[in-house]
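Structure first, sequence second, as always.
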């Protein structure tokens, strides 16, 4: 939400499949060989990308399980 637009690349813990921009309906295909999404964020804006499928990235699944276990053993 800065004063200038920014281009980013998302590649960490990204499941394969077709991701969809919630506003523009633009689609981004993530495959085993293309594991990233390059996207521009407008000044003072946000982008929300949706994957209408279950997570299929094993490292993300492991991290989510670790966080869930930690949260259950340390309730606030």
């Amino acid at each position: 939400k800065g004063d200038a637009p920014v281009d980013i690349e998302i590649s960490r813990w990204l499941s394969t499949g077709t991701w969809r921009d919630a506003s523009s309906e633009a689609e981004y295909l993530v495959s085993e060989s293309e594991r990233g999404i390059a996207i521009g964020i407008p000044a003072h804006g946000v982008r929300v990308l949706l994957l209408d499928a279950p997570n299929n990235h094993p490292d993300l699944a492991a991290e989510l399980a670790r966080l869930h276990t930690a949260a259950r053993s340390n309730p606030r």
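Margin note: The chain has a mean pLDDT of 93.
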